[in-house]
Amino acid sequence: MAEAVGISRSLAAFHLDKLVEAGLLAVSFRRLSGRTGPGAGRPAKVYRRAEGEHAVSVPPRSYDAAGRLLAEAVENAGLDRELQAAAQAAGAAHPDAAAGDLVEVLRARGYQPFWDGETLRLHNCPFRALAEEFPALICGMNLALLKGLALEQWSPTMDPCPGGCCVALSKNKDH
Amino acid sequence: MTGFHLAQVNIGRILAPLDSPELADFVAQLPEINALAERSPGFVWRMVDDEGEDATGARPDESDDLLLINCSVWESVEALRNFTYRTDHLRVLSRRREWFQRLAEAYQALWWIPAGHRPSIAEAMERVALVREHGPGPTAFTFRDTYPAPARSAQV
User: Fold this and answer.
1) Chain B partners of A135 at a C-beta cutoff of 8 Å?
2) Residue limits of the DUF3291 domain (chain B) (predicted)?
3) Contact (Cβ atoms closer than 8 angstroms) between residue B47 and residue B55
């Protein structure tokens, strides 16, 4: 990492530890050499993204609170289908939808796509907190949004991935 | 093993009779989704009507021919939550408003039962009534507000 950004190892560690202090990264110790026992050397300090969500907004904005209220009202009013129609239209109208490279589009929108054989799965749910509180409503919205974003050669389906998004996509055979 | 299992009930009023074209898609998916429930980790039991396939023949309110009941027993809240929201069941669930009316009052309840007990329709409806009258509590609660199983020493 230090090499990649052209700074010293100790300076990189200094900044990584700052991010740990701020709660953005978590640390574990692991022997990367694969050796164990005496003589295997000191375990390496391994940094990974911390659990939990962080949002930064200047000036302060509370879209999450507004989102929760809106979701509650939509849920209580039984407007699932109206929400799905709006989500699909928004996906289809997005300029990225026509761009063609769906994997890149999903990456840019924070889904963290990865290939699992022939299936494109999504590591991250961009609507996580709301989806946990209103799963039927929000996961249905997300599926509709992805149906809108995906061009004809893709089939998005509900196929929840542990810890990740509820939608998986596969390429249609005839394309 | 706590000696307790989790019972679940939800009721829903269908938008049209079960044999109508509006409900055809829902009815067609029932065998597949029920089979999925049965092979899901932590599944214990599900209520069926006299026909024995599913509970769509049961009517928890005799005066309401469109009100359906769905009742099952699971080993834990997590087992039920996984099936409900982390399997193909979610796909069907996200289409609920194509087939079911929105109910203004509480339409579901979770409660703890001694392992081996099989809840009746009347018992299940009492639990829904408890959530409606008092909100979630230890005797009847919801996914959004769960309560732990009774302690072993409190068993009666």
Assistant:
1) 84-85, 90, 93
2) 6-145
3) yes
